[in-house]
Specification:
8 strands; flat
């Protein structure tokens, strides 16, 4: 009887966590307090277009920011919407392109809390 090696399931996930601090400068020798709310409100007003919220990353990819909470603690998500180097759909050994509409892509999220 032949034996087939079955991969082990990983129970641990490795993550990198970064902490950021905004240096808004100084006024009269004291640090300027940065209020992110007006910036996040302005981002929410931008349309999902190349003239608005999207930043062209080349090869059909764009990145954008999506605020999730305006009150403290503010939360936002950076999203890379990809259309290049996409995985393929596999069915019984046959590979085919994912049926993604031309104005869409796969979203890879980075949460900022």
């Amino acid at each position: 009887m032949a034996r087939v090696a079955v991969p082990r399931r990983t129970t641990a996930v490795e993550r990198k966590i970064y902490f950021y601090q905004i240096d808004a400068g100084q006024k009269n020798g004291a640090p300027v307090i940065f209020d992110p709310v007006p910036v996040l409100q302005r981002i929410n007003e931008l349309p999902f277009t190349m003239e608005g919220r999207y930043l062209d990353m080349g090869e059909g990819n764009v990145t954008f920011v999506q605020p999730h909470a305006l009150s403290y603690p503010q939360k936002l998500v950076f999203v890379l919407r990809g259309r290049s180097n996409l995985p393929e759909l596999e069915r019984q050994g046959d590979l085919s392109a994912l049926p993604i509409p031309l104005d869409s892509g796969l979203g890879d999220k980075i949460h900022v809390y």
